[in-house]
Amino acid sequence: MVNRTHFRCLSCNYVIGCRTQFGYGKEQVYTFPCPNCGVNLGFTILIDQENISWAYEALDNLKPEDFNTEPSYLLNFSSCFLVEKKNLTDLPLTPFLSNLTLVSDSDAYFKVRNIRHHAAQEFWPCLDRANTHRQRGDFDKFMSEFRSIKAHEFIPTFETGSLREIIAQGYEMFGSIFSTSNEQERKLIESRIDIAVESNAQGVNDLKNFFVLEDRAESIFNQLRALDRQWVDLYSFFEPLEIIDWLRDPKSLDSGDFTLSEKPIERLKTFYTDGFETLGRIFVIAACYEGICTGAGVGVPSRSRLILPQEFEQMPNGAKPNLISSMPFWPIFVDVFDSKLRNGIGHHSWRYDASLDIIFYQNHSPSRGKEDFKISFLNFCILTRKLYHCVTVSAKYLHSIWV
């Protein structure tokens, strides 16, 4: 559905028409520069999808204007597709048509979008309910939830496994729906776990016991589920990025001509931070598996000694790559585990410039002093999406000791 409304910029008094293609999210946040004076403008649309009603809230440097005034500019927004920055005002193509020009196989692209949309809307709620029944020990309702979405047909241990084994495989299957291109990474992690078990089963058991203590494994499991929930809540925003897997030219987004209309900045910052911190905790498990694989023992091998799990766990996440960068699993995560970006968010140095569609942030280093960085909004969203995919892949480490 497309809705058109008019606003007046409080800075320069120009009237702006906004043509917005609604998605299925309940809250859609838009931030953009005034086409005339460049000041940051914004509004939030609250949508009741069931009763088909909506309201414009949280106006930023804007006030409503009636339709009797002809707008000086007409801007085009979409929560369903990428939008062309240069075409925000002249509308030669709808976002739907401009996205189709980028896609190599439109039928396959929309088929995958529909599958992933269904997973977020239908599969996840069933998994979430099944996990509640697991926690309460209600076997019949647990099994019923899986059968209702036919997920049991794809889980090898459905008839024979424990509830923990089944729910863990269900969550891994959910994650794989959104990251089908990460199959090789999953196989690598499986192989490293298998090697550790074959070489030192007692060491793997000791590792499991460490994570059972103080409910470490359960805590990380709950952290993963909270991250899944954020992903589902934000998926209507991330859905336009599914086009990345179907680009005719993989470099077609490098030009900076496209962006995402919605700007849920605060939620994205939280999502990236939580994903980063979750990976940091899972790295403890992954690195200790490597210690077992190499014969060093249950811990993280370094040049001088074996670092015990509890010591590595307490290290700042930004320092962990120094010890794991040579390990077989590190290439999976090297592109997304950006401690400078994480610190920029955490230290509140983050600033989004709507006129440039760029995020500026700072990192303060004891040796290098203040460092300034920037990343386009689209690239930050692509990075955050990839980070979540990496977390779903790494979940196999946690599940291997949690079940």
Instruction: Tell me the strand percentage band.
Output: 15-25%
Largest β-sheet summary: 4 strands, mixed
Quaternary status: single chain
Mean pLDDT: 90
User: Alpha-carbon distance between the termini?
Assistant: 45 Å
Rg estimate, integer Å: 23 Å
Overall tally of structural domains = 2
- Total beta strands: 14
Q: Largest beta sheet: what is the strand line-up?
A: 6-1-2-7
Binned, the helix content reads: 40-55%
Give me the secondary-structure category.
Answer: alpha+beta
What does this structure look like?
With 403 residues, the chain is α+β, with helices and mostly antiparallel strands. It folds into two domains: 78 residues, no CATH class; 297 residues, no CATH class. It contains 13 helices and 14 strands. Strands 6-1-2-7 form a four-stranded mixed β-sheet, with no helix packed on it. Strand 3 and strand 4 form a beta hairpin. The longest helix is centred in the N-terminal third of the chain and has 31 residues. The two termini are 45 Å apart.
